[in-house]
Design a protein that fits this description.
The chain has about 750 residues and is α/β, with parallel strands linked by helices.
Length: about 750
């Protein structure tokens, strides 16, 4: 039988690269880059070639598992949902829904069903509190976006195709392929900046692969990014280089910011940042003088002890230097299919507020509806009213990805009941009573939902399924709706997910018809629902395309886009470069950008104290690799070849001081725990800073990850103290952790 060609978009990261997939008799034979893809134009990274290995992985679950006394047992879908009803009902009857929570993992954002229906699950289930990977990843960015622009997902991205001066802080797109920056072949684009006479500067405590490709690398002490950025702002004010351009009529708080920046001179921050005052002044001047420039800060500026201040200051410097909402600067995308995730949650309809409630044990304040994920372990383990007794995890592995990981691993067996929606029996799901596997990505369509909100061009791509799943298998959206119904008291055998889907979709349509900011404002919801095709996420996508900026508008623009339009363009549709969108994107009470949010600026006193604090002996930062994707790509043989990647990177001077030998075990201790890991001595680290990769620790008994287990490594979150957070957002500070490093032969204290 001849091979069958398919056009596909890789779902693994924000690059969204186009693929050509060849199949024969139900198996993937090869995957190559798609040169005709309008977005990626023939670029692909090593991960994209392995979707076939993921699909055919013998460890991937295809049927539900239920825990019995003898271990996990395969059961029918009907029996799995009945078991969930039997397990959850006693908990809810005795303790109410307050005793149930859910953890939402990072892969949710990359899944066609989950990304569009996790919101429905949360709303329709009635679960009052959830936890997510967002409080380890980007919560500071959500906080500042909400306060500055009025939407927690109104996040600008650098117009990298047209800039000639790019500063990258706390990001390593050579490995990540971009984060809150959706673009293919980002290293090629950095090279393009330099080829056209521009400059790329990387500010990072490690000389990453991105730094190696830049014009300049500036090492910085972890956790001090906000100080450096405010010093740049100080220079802009002090040297009369502030030029708001067209943004002048759309900002408020400029004088307040000017006053706040006075104390953060380059000389005041230089010692703490370990960046000279002269260099900070030069950086600010070059940035201001560049014709088209953008300052981009990502995960390293978020998951640190001043993540919100740093995230705010990134946008602040762009605005002050006149590099905001203009070509080549920081800009807002205009997605072909607007993400429903970006709709303001009903509980924030009257404005954004924080600390509306606090966690039961620690007293951590709520931020955007969540508290730090590290609170989950103590909420499970601590008896008393409100104790968490049942947990539903959705596409997440918090035993590896949550701070204070050992505490969570120890707490999960104490749950009365646990359900996991996951394709693997991994370090977290091994604690579950029921595991419900989703489909392979190749068994379902694909169109990224949220990622186009920070894409460098206004584009979109739809992929049809390659393989048909077994007829009895539910899609993830159906699983989530069934779980929400069971939590609300419906019997498992009586759940009608089609009816629930209609209720959810009808409510969404009615909400947008009532919103003055919507393109269907004032329309009859019943008319819109009647014209909408399909069901589930396909109907959601068709709806988004129709109401989008180039959409058919349900009859108002007959030649506009629908899902059928995208289906007929397998290589994608590109509607062009980013354009200025202020004030269109603003949803603040006065229609202006708030340059000095009180919630953010109130933390400057704490930052001032940090700048005079005595330095730690050493601090730990995390890292990732091009052939890795957090914890969920370590079971692919093709990606786990080569030398051991789970090593402790140490500067040569530090290694000599601590008595470390390259390749030999080193001990690393923090307030939270201890690990032993091979030392890798390299001058890519700045002195006083060491680095471990995240996502490893595949040595847990009971997990079924055969390839990952052979490359187990250690879990760096064992060292992350749960209470070490950015106080404004609750985001985990997993970068800049104080540690002590010693040769293993020295033994423990």
């Amino acid at each position: 039988m001849e091979e069958t060609p398919h056009i596909r978009t890789c779902h693994l990261c924000e690059a969204m690269c186009g693929l050509r997939v060849e199949t024969r008799e139900g198996r993937v034979e090869r995957i190559r880059a798609n040169p005709d893809d309008v977005w990626s134009r023939g670029y692909i990274c090593p991960k994209g070639t392995t979707l076939g290995a993921l699909h055919h992985d013998p460890d991937r679950l295809r049927v539900p598992l239920v825990r019995r006394e003898s271990g996990f047992e395969e059961v029918s879908w009907e029996e799995a949902f009945r078991e969930i009803e039997r397990g959850l009902r006693p908990v809810i009857d005795a303790h109410g829904l307050d005793a149930v929570t859910s953890y939402i993992g990072n892969p949710t954002a990359h899944n066609f069903s989950l990304s569009r229906y996790v919101g429905a699950f949360i709303a329709m289930s009635g679960i009052p509190r959830i936890y997510s990977a967002g409080t380890v990843d980007q919560w500071p960015k959500n906080v500042t976006a909400a306060l500055m622009y009025g939407g927690m997902w109104t996040i600008p991205t650098p117009d990298i195709d047209r800039t000639d001066y790019l500063i990258i802080m706390g990001a390593n797109p050579q490995a990540s392929q971009g984060s809150l920056l959706a673009t293919p072949d980002i290293m090629g684009k950095l090279s393009g900046i330099r080829k056209r006479g521009g400059k790329v500067v990387v500010i990072d405590p490690r000389r990453t692969g991105t730094a190696d490709a830049a014009d300049e690398w500036l090492p910085i002490q972890p956790g001090t990014d906000a100080g450096l950025l405010l010093a740049m702002a100080h220079v802009l004010f002090d040297e009369d280089r502030v030029d708001l351009g067209h943004m002048a009529e759309y900002v408020e708080g400029l004088d307040e910011v000017r006053a706040l920046c006075r104390e953060f001179s380059p000389e005041a921050v230089a010692e703490a940042c370990q960046v000279s005052a002269e260099k900070i002044r030069t950086l600010a001047r070059e940035f201001a003088e560049a014709k088209a420039a953008a300052l981009y800060g990502r995960i390293g500026t978020c998951n640190q002890e001043f993540g919100t201040l740093a995230s705010w200051a990134v946008d602040l410097v762009n605005i002050l230097a006149g590099k905001f909402d203009r070509p080549g600067g920081l800009m807002f995308s205009n997605p072909i299919a607007p993400s429903m995730t970006t709709l303001r949650p009903p509980d924030f309809a009257e404005g954004w507020s924080f600390g509306r409630w606090k966690s039961r044990v620690r007293g951590a304040p709520e931020i955007l509806g969540q508290v730090p994920v590290s609170c989950l372990a103590e909420e499970i383990a601590t008896p008393g009213e409100g104790q968490i007794r049942a947990l539903i995890t959705v596409a997440g592995n918090p035993v590896l990805s949550a701070p204070d990981a050992a505490k969570l691993d120890a707490a999960l067996p104490g749950l009365d009941f646990m359900v996991s929606v996951d394709n693997y029996l991994n370090e977290t799901t091994r604690h579950a009573h029921v595991i419900l596997p989703g489909l392979s990505p190749l068994e379902q369509p694909h169109y990224d939902e949220l990622l186009w909100c920070w894409a460098v061009r206004n584009a979109g791509k739809y992929s049809a399924p390659l393989f048909e799943p077994e007829p009895e298998r539910p899609h993830e959206w159906e699983i989530l709706l069934a779980l929400s119904a069971i939590l609300q008291g419906q019997k498992a055998d009586e759940v009608n997910t089609g009816l629930l889907d209609d209720l959810f979709f009808g409510g969404l349509v009615a909400t947008l018809c009532a919103s003055p900011r919507s393109s269907i404002a004032g329309r009859d919801p019943g008319e819109i629902v009647a014209q909408s095709r399909g069901k589930g996420p396909e109907r959601m996508l068709d709806f988004a395309l129709r109401i989008g900026p180039w959409g058919e508008g349900y009859g108002t623009r007959p030649d506009g886009m629908t899902l059928e339009t995208m289906e007929q363009a397998p290589n994608g549709i590109d509607m062009g470069a980013l354009e200025p969108r202020i004030p269109e994107v603003l949803d603040t009470p006065d229609g202006k950008v708030n340059l000095a949010p009180a919630h953010v600026c109130g933390d400057l006193e704490r930052l001032s104290a940090r700048l005079t604090r005595a330095p730690e002996e050493a601090v730990l930062v995390s890292r990732r690799h091009l052939r890795s994707n957090n914890s969920w790509m370590h079971n692919v043989p093709e990606l786990m070849t080569g030398k051991d990647r789970c090593t402790l990177l140490v500067h040569p001077g530090d290694a000599e001081r601590w008595g470390l030998v390259n390749g030999e075990p080193a001990r690393i201790d923090s307030k939270a725990g201890s690990l032993t890991v091979p030392a890798e001595i390299s001058d890519e680290m700045m002195p006083g800073v060491v680095s471990l990769p995240h996502g490893f620790g595949h040595d847990k008994e009971g997990a079924r990850l055969s390839v990952a287990a052979r490359n187990a490594g250690v879990c760096n979150n064992i060292l992350a103290p749960g209470e070490f957070v950015d106080v404004l957002s609750g985001n985990a500070a997993v970068n800049g952790i104080p540690v002590r490093v010693s040769a293993l032969t020295q033994g423990a204290d």
